[in-house]
Amino acid sequence: MDYDREKELKTFDESRAGVKGLVDTGTLTQLPKIFVRPPDEIANDLDTWQPTSLDCPEIPLVDLRTIFENDREGRDEIVRQIQKASETWGFFQVINHGIQSCVLEGMIDGVRAFHEQDVEAKKAIYSRDRSKKVRFESNVDLYKTRSANWRDTMTISRVTPEDHDLSEVPEICRDRMLDYIKCIRTLGETLLELLAEALGLKENHLRELDCSRNQTIVCHYYPACPEPDLTLGASRHTDPSFFTVLLQDQLGGLQVLHQDRWIDVKPISGGLIVNIGDLLQILSNDKFKSVDHRVVASYVGPRISTACFFNGVADPPKVYGPIKELIFDGDLPLYKEFTVKDYIIKFFSRSIGESGLDQFRM
Predict the structure, then answer these.
(1) pLDDT tens for each residue of 70-121
(2) Rounded to an integer, what distance in angstroms lies between the CA atom of residue 229 and that of residue 227?
(3) Which of 131, 113, 129, 132 has its CA nearest to residue 170?
(4) What is the largest CA-CA distance in the chain?
(5) Helices vs strands, H then E, count in the chain
(6) What is the pLDDT of residues 203-222, one digit of tens each?
(7) Does 316 sit behind a cis peptide bond, omega within 30 degrees of 0 on the bond before it?
(8) What is the spatial distance between Cα 358 and Cα 282, in angstroms, rounded to a whole number?
């Protein structure tokens, strides 16, 4: 009866120390109430059938090796695999993607170094102002969601090919992150070509629409949790992007909703996870699927991951909508036209667990 949620949210936010700041006190034995999920959400999870290890499917695995060998037949097979994965799962994992393991490991180490540095250094860039290019925060939807997630985040936004000055990125992780950003941008261009071909379009069609022009990189840190069954590292959501490339460490925790079941995405050494975002589902007129996913909390931690969202052009405004070449005789466009800026504003005006697609359906 004495629980004042708004007060506790404000106290947590104004500490500017994030979830790790709570853990570092050394006195945490149970979950603070702001992180405890409502009973109906937990009950709903119990009603969702969890597959056993014997019958649990895995997200598709795509080997990109032949892409770099100019093997046309091999490329066609990769395109078929990506098409099937994008239509049925909305997720796939890629290996032999051309990014060296030292760059991947360096990015994970850089994210760890940022989050585990002195808290005062992190507080200096703590902000909920989404116009800031580089910022640290915990729970972008803290005041809108029913329960907070057990996770802290550093965000680098509005990264473009011409953006050579990322001096705002903290020095403790800057060089390692810049190496990764350059490599992931190159891979993103390759993936965009393959996704276009998987839709039956010319390989440069999505590139000419500037679908990978702008990137946002989020660097997540999920501390060990005292009561992981009561909270989540990331609530169920879809991504407000054309597509997303995720690098995660080997602890696991990512789950994808597939055929009404939460499927664990097992980490593969050197692998990267690719998922279709809301914006590409709209452009494909529902041929490709933007699928719900989440991250479970764990007694073991920290879990570290970084997601690169390929967002297209937000400013100056560019109008997107279902691609006319994908709307055949008798079909109708399923979505209204939109700008990325409008979509993002609406997405972040609510809890991230609420669907953004419904707002743009015809």
Answers:
(1) 778 899 999 999 999 999 999 999 999 999 999 999 999 999 999 999 999 9
(2) 6
(3) 113
(4) 67
(5) 10, 14
(6) 999 999 999 989 999 999 99
(7) yes
(8) 11
Give the integer Cα–Cα distance in Å for 293 and 246. 12
Side chain identity at 269, as an amino acid letter? S
| CA–CA–CA angle 320, 326, 332 (5° rounding) | 80
Q: State the 10-residue block means of pLDDT for the chain, 362 residues long.
A: 87 97 92 95 72 73 90 92 98 97 98 97 96 95 95 94 83 95 96 98 95 94 97 95 97 94 93 97 97 96 97 87 90 92 86 80 86
Residue type, 70: N
Token pair 């005789």 in the structure block, residue: 329
Q: What are 69's two structure tokens?
A: 């060998």
Eight-state DSSP code of residue 335: B
Q: In angstroms, rounded to a whole number, what is the distance separating the alpha carbons of residues 98 and 110?
A: 20
- Starting at the earlier edge strand, list the strands of the sheet with 232-237: 232-237, 293-296, 254-258, 261-264
Buried b (16+ CB within 10 A) or exposed e, 303-327: bbbbbbbbbbbbeeeeebebbeebe
Contacts of 157 (CB under 8 A, 6+ apart): 130, 132, 133, 134, 216, 217
Distance CA 67, CA 65 (A): 5
Can you read off the two tokens belonging to residue 94?
A: 């890629």
